[in-house]
């Protein structure tokens, strides 16, 4: 199952949800602001990114800038706590497909189509069976 981690005020999050709905792709949506990630969920995300924390934490996040947070100087426990207590530091949306061991961060329709190739092919196959 595809999990989509979003925040309600994020335009990219809204676009990815619209994309999934339009293509009738099943997903589980998680508002990370109302329901922050747990430490174990953060660890799962980090398993799928090549550059670790830098791939999921935005250096441009307001919290990072206001508090002059240098991710390089944080221990992993501190990173987990930062993400749990200030989820807006995460890049969004995050699309995770654990069973296929893949992750997509941010909204780029072309990249999402590649990411979801198997799912979209099934949709088109089902569509053409009607004719």
TrEMBL record:
Signal peptide: none annotated. Gene3D superfamilies: Glutaredoxin (3.40.30.10). SUPFAM superfamilies: Thioredoxin-like. It holds the Pfam family ArsC. InterPro entries: Arsenate_reductase-like (IPR006660), Thioredoxin-like_sf (IPR036249), Tscrpt_reg_Spx/MgsR (IPR006504). NCBIfam families: arsC_related (TIGR01617), PRK01655.1 (NF002459). Belongs to the ArsC family. This is Transcriptional regulator Spx.
